[in-house]
UniProtKB/TrEMBL annotation:
Role: Attaches a formyl group to the free amino group of methionyl-tRNA(fMet). The formyl group appears to play a dual role in the initiator identity of N-formylmethionyl-tRNA by promoting its recognition by IF2 and preventing the misappropriation of this tRNA by the elongation apparatus.
E.C. number(s) listed in UniProt: 2.1.2.9
Residues that hold (6S)-5,6,7,8-tetrahydrofolate according to the record: S110, L111, L112, P113
Keyword Protein biosynthesis: yes
UniProt keyword Membrane present: no
UniProt protein name: Methionyl-tRNA formyltransferase
Domain Formyl transferase N-terminal: 8-180
């Protein structure tokens, strides 16, 4: 029978909350330290907001640290048996990765070596993948290049968005992690090197990635929306102002590329092959609106071009 595993947890976002809660609930782990990103200023008032992981950690009276960088970080990690990383978001130096007795395990949201990097869930959706999964891996000095302990595959539903897939993969990742660690700790599970010839990279996203190119197909634009909602979101430009497309769906209506058509409070925009229907949107400097509110506020937009 395993003794409790003294563990450092690195995580920041909602995905990491699912993992941390599962570790707290498990009799296998003693969470000695939680490392999460610093509180960030949010909104117009720039009020500091705690990360979801910090909020959960405070609820359970866990020790928390929030370094702005781990480059010169001094911590008791060397006294812990294991570190676990889940969507932490900051670079972890090699000396910290290798500090615990059993190393550092990362829950990566792709079937490595595909989609190494910062946006694996978004990239899978944008590229129209029908399958993805989680990889439980040992971290090394490379970018998501460490050996694999376990992988689980997941089918992607046609209308899954980032939030849907993030939640599904968090639950899958937790179960895979809890399945993996006992056998790994006692030496029954040996890490398998990744096939470097199959490696692909995905980059960190920015707001510019959300701009819609209306020359693309309906499916390509819809996949872009699925991957980039809620952040950074998809958008276009109308009358020199950014127009956020908050809720869209594919449509069969054939419209000229970039042409806007309004019909009984339904708004369509032509794509490279058919059209997209917009049902919720927000013009720069304005509140979120449904199509009826938008049309009533801005006359003569039917058959304009974007």
């Amino acid at each position: 029978m395993l003794h409790k595993i003294s563990t450092t947890f690195f995580g920041t976002h909602d995905f990491a909350v699912t993992i941390l809660q599962g570790l707290i609930d498990s009799p296998l782990f003693e969470i000695e330290l939680v490392i999460t990103q610093p509180d960030r200023p949010i909104g117009r008032k720039q009020e500091l907001q705690k990360s979801p992981v910090k909020i959960l950690s405070e609820k359970h009276n866990l020790k928390i640290d929030q370094p702005t960088s781990l480059k010169n970080y001094q911590s008791p990690i060397t006294n812990h048996k294991l570190s676990i990383v889940a969507q932490y978001g900051l670079l972890i130096p090699p000396n910290i990765v290798s500090a615990p007795k059993h190393g550092t395990i990362n829950i990566h949201t792709s079937l490595l070596p595909k989609y190494r990097g910062a946006s694996p869930i978004q990239s899978a959706l944008i590229n129209g993948e029908t399958k993805t999964g989680v990889s439980i891996m040992l971290m090394n000095v490379g970018l998501d290049s460490g050996p694999i302990l376990l992988q689980k595959e997941l089918n992607i539903a046609p209308d899954d968005t980032y939030l849907d897939l993030d939640k599904k993969l968090a639950n899958m990742g937790l179960h895979a992690l809890l399945e993996t660690i006992p056998d790994y700790i006692v030496g029954k599970l040996k890490p398998t090197p990744q096939d470097e010839s199959q490696a692909t990279l995905c980059s960190k996203l920015s707001r510019k990635d959300g701009r819609v190119d209306w020359q693309k197909s309906t499916l390509e634009i819809y996949n872009q929306y699925r991957g980039l909602t809620p952040w950074p979101g998809v958008w276009t430009v109308w009358n020199d102002r950014r127009l956020k497309l908050l809720k869209i769906s594919p449509a069969e209506k054939n419209i000229l590329t970039g042409r806007v058509e309004i019909n009984y409070d339904r708004l369509h925009i032509g794509t490279g092959d058919r059209s997209i229907e917009i049902s919720k949107l927000q013009l720069e400097g304005k509140k979120v609106m449904n199509v009826k509110e938008f049309v009533n506020g801005f006359k003569n937009i039917d058959r304009e071009e974007l």
